[in-house]
Amino acid sequence: MGIMDDAKEAAETTGRKIKEAWEDTTDKIGDKVDEMKADANVKKAEAERDSVEARNDFKEKLRDEE
What we know:
Elements (H helix, E strand, L loop, with lengths): L1 H64 L1
């Protein structure tokens, strides 16, 4: 029965390692998605900032011309 116990233990260990690898992979994917969303939000905020600055500069030039 020792061989059967060893095989069962090996199968359980393999199953546990596969499960852990799957969980690690899904965590890494989730982290990467979060990172990409954060980068997109930063780029959007920077574009809005640049737009506001350009608009303000234009308004300032119009005021100076008056």
